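Predict the 3D structure for this chain.
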Amino acid sequence: MAKLDGLETVLSFLKKLPPKIAAQIAKKVMALNIDPLPADSKALKGYPGYYRVDSGEYRVIYRFTTSDDLVEVILVGKRNDDEVYKQLDRLLS
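Done. Predicted structure below.
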């Protein structure tokens, strides 16, 4: 079972959402603890070790380090909006 990090990022984002949607995203994030690379995850091009999973109309971007068995949630944002990738660029540059 992988360790989860970055939950404060997720919680601050979830507080702004309706309870049903927040619960769906929280369930998806917690599932990464059991399976860090689920079938619906995709590696991010240009960002080695970074992945994304979708939960409804939202996207969870995370980094998985196999050597440490660690899942670090980086961002959560709207799927149909490239803003989440712009935020990722700002964070990593």
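The chain has one domain: 3-92.
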